Automatic annotation (TrEMBL):
InterPro entries reported in the protein's UniProt record: CBS_dom (IPR000644), CBS_dom_sf (IPR046342)
Residues in CBS domain copies: 95-148
Name listed for the protein in its UniProt record: CBS domain-containing protein
SUPFAM superfamilies documented for this protein: CBS-domain pair
Residues annotated as transmembrane: none
Keyword ATP-binding: no
Alphabetically ordered keywords of this record: CBS domain
Length: 148
């Protein structure tokens, strides 16, 4: 089986997509991450859901998790509201990792190696012209490898 056979349609976002919209898309569809594409629908990077949390949770709480216990639930819920004025571009790390992208002819093992190496919960599959064709999620990859 090749990557083109294993990939599925998947939502994508652009750099200027509001961060809160990306968070809603992640939560609403239970996605592990999103593919960020350019104006021609070519993958630019993968935005893992954890990166959204990194921007939503204040740095001082990330640095000292004990502080999370002193913030009441009403205020904790407001942290995601901080994403309203930000874009996907601001969610991305300054030093991007290897772009987890393969063409449709990649083998399952090539996809697994790339996913492991890039620590990405998904791999984008592109057509010959470089346009996003679909995505292989960690769940789909493990299902295929385990024969479930």
């Amino acid at each position: 089986m090749r990557a083109g056979d294993l990939c599925s349609p998947f939502p994508s976002v652009r750099m200027d997509t509001p961060a809160i919209e990306a968070a809603r898309l992640l939560a609403g569809q239970d996605l592990p991450g999103l593919v960020v594409v350019d104006a021609r629908d070519k993958p630019v990077t993968v935005l893992p859901g954890t990166q959204v949390l990194r921007l939503a949770v204040p740095q001082y709480i990330q640095d000292d998790p004990a502080l999370a216990r002193v913030v009441d639930e009403a205020h904790a819920d407001q942290f995601l509201a901080e994403l309203a004025d930000r874009t996907v571009r601001e969610l991305l790390p300054e030093q991007p990792r290897e772009l987890p992208v393969v063409d449709g002819n990649a083998t399952v093992l090539e996809v697994a190696a790339l996913m492991a190496r890039s620590r990405s919960p998904l791999v984008a599959v592109v057509a010959r012209n470089g346009v996003l064709d679909g995505v292989i999620t960690l769940d789909a990859l493990l299902d295929r490898m385990l024969g479930t």
